[in-house]
Amino acid sequence: MPIYVHLDVDINSCRTCAAALDELSTVAESGADKFKQARDKSEYVWDSPTGNDFRDTITTLAKAAEQTSDHASALAAALRVFTDSMLTAKEHLNRAATLAASAGLWVGPNSCDATWIGDPEPLPLTGPWTIEQRTTQATQVSAYNDALGDC
Fold it and tell me: Is 105 left (phi over 0), alpha (psi -120 to 50) or beta?
C-alpha cells in the first residue's frame, strides 16, 4: 500500500496570517491605551452624569480592545506553533521520500515534489532468486519501513 507523503499546508500563508494577527494585537493594544487616556482626561473636564456614562462606555471599549489584543496575540502564537509543527512534518515527509527514492522505491508523481511512496517490488514468483534480487528487495523493504516510521 503506498505511503502518502503530501502535506497540503501553505507555510508562508500561515506565517503571513500570524504576522497580521500580531499587527492586530498591537493596534488593538494601542486603541485600548487611547481609550484609557480619553477616559482619564475626561475626569478632569467633564464632571457630570453624562461624563460618568461616557467613562463607563469608554472603559468597556478599552476592555474589549485589550481582550482583542490578547486573543489576537494568543492566536498568532498558536498559529506559529502549528506552522512550526507543519514545517517539521513536511521535512520528515520529504526526508522519507528522498530515502525511499534512493533505495529504489517509486516516488511520485514527481520525485521533486512527491505525493506518495510506492510499495517495494516483490520478488519474482518463481525462484531461484539472485543475491542482487534479494538485496534489492531487502533494501526496498527496509526503506519502506523506515518511511513508515518517518511518516
Answer: beta
Average pLDDT of the residues in 127-138: 89
- pLDDT at residue 121, rounded to an integer: 87
Inform me whether the pLDDT recorded for 148 exceeds 90: no
Q: Which residues pair with 117 in a beta bridge?
A: 3, 107
How far from the centroid of its chain's Cα atoms is residue 108's Cα?
24
Give one DSSP letter per residue of the chain, joined into a string. Answer: -PEE------HHHHHHHHHHHHHHHHHHHHHHHHHHHHHHHHHHH--SHHHHHHHHHHHHHHHHHHHHHHHHHHHHHHHHHHHHHHHHHHHHHHHHHHHHHHTT--EES-TTS-SEEPPPPPPPSSSPPPHHHHHHHHHHHHHHHHHHHH-
**pLDDT at residue 113 above 80?**
no
Which residues touch 101 (CB under 8 Å, ≥6 apart)?
107, 111, 114
C-alpha cell of residue 122: 516483490
Cα distances (angstroms) measured from residue 61 to each of 27, 65, 95, 116, 144? 14, 6, 51, 52, 58
